[in-house]
Amino acid sequence: MSKIIQEIQKGRILVSDGAWGTFLQKKGLSPGECPEEWNITRPDDVFDIAQSYIQAGADMIETNSFGGNWYKLKGYGLENQVFELNKAAAEISRKAAGPDRFVLGSVGPTGKLLMMEEVTEDELYKAFKDQSQALEAGGANAIVIETMTDLEEARIAVKAAKENTACEVICTMTFDKILSGEFRTMMGISPGEMTETLVEAGASVIGANCGNGIADMIGIVKEIRQVNATIPILIHANAGMPQYCDGETTFPESPADMAGRVKEIIEAGANIIGGCCGTTPDHIREVHHVVKSL
């Protein structure tokens, strides 16, 4: 199969998948239950999510492994199943993707802070190495390190995946719009600072996920492009900002709302477009239609 970078170099705009966490909750994932355990206990439900995005027109799908690192799994007493749970996650998405679509092995933050000395660099490196190797063993084409706020943790994750797998390595961080109108992670990192560090660390693709609807993601893409004109950019936007009403979280952007901004974000410089929290196969289907028409 052609690599993701090769497809982008041909001029293709690629469509990624949408939300997993909110989808799992709709299927019955309880608060306090480990999502990654479903890869073993309820694989058909996980497969159904992956397949729904493929059927909606996604060129790539992620894996149900966002919290599959040693530290997150330890919270559920599953720290000895890092390899098993991550390999199963990739195998499920590989089965749904078939031979012609890409599988992105999802790797999220550990929840441990280097600056507070809760973890060492070597410990982080090992956790990301072990998870990435398991995802590759299950059939992932790329490792997508996502929802990062600490640039040093993101850098270590990129390095671990790059040095220990043959997968392409993608890394996205989560930015908030501050009062001045600029974008920063919770740790104060700007899109420009992220770009320089992650490209140097060896990321093949960088970008942003979560934290913003697609409209604000356009500004983040433009800021990345001011620093680097060529690095491929992946955007996984929320379906707008979450709204809380009667104890329920909803996301306001319809599939048409999201699709209406696709042309603009491509013109800003995005190469891969998908969704994060609140997005559904319907959102991805509409994005696919716009990309195809362009």
Characterization of the model:
By secondary structure, this protein is of the alpha/beta class. The chain has a single domain, classed as TIM Barrel (Alpha-Beta Barrel). It is built from 13 helices and 12 strands. The strands form 3 sheets. The protein has an 8-stranded parallel beta sheet. Helix 4 runs parallel beside helix 6, helix 9 packs across helix 10 and helix 10 runs parallel beside helix 12. The longest helix has 17 residues.
Structural class: alpha/beta
Helix content range of the residues, please?
A: 40-55%
Low-confidence runs: none
Order of helices and strands: HEHHHEHHEHEHEEEHEHEEEHHEH
Radius of gyration: 17 Å
Give the DSSP E fraction (strand runs of 2 or more residues): 15-25%
In the CATH scheme, the class would be Alpha Beta
CATH topology: TIM Barrel
Multimerization state: single chain
DSSP strand tally: 12
The CATH superfamily turns out to be Homocysteine-binding-like domain
Tally of individual helices: 13
- How many domains? The number is 1
Characterize the biggest β-sheet: 8 strands, parallel
Distance between the termini: 24 Å
What coarse outline follows from CA principal-axis ratios? globular
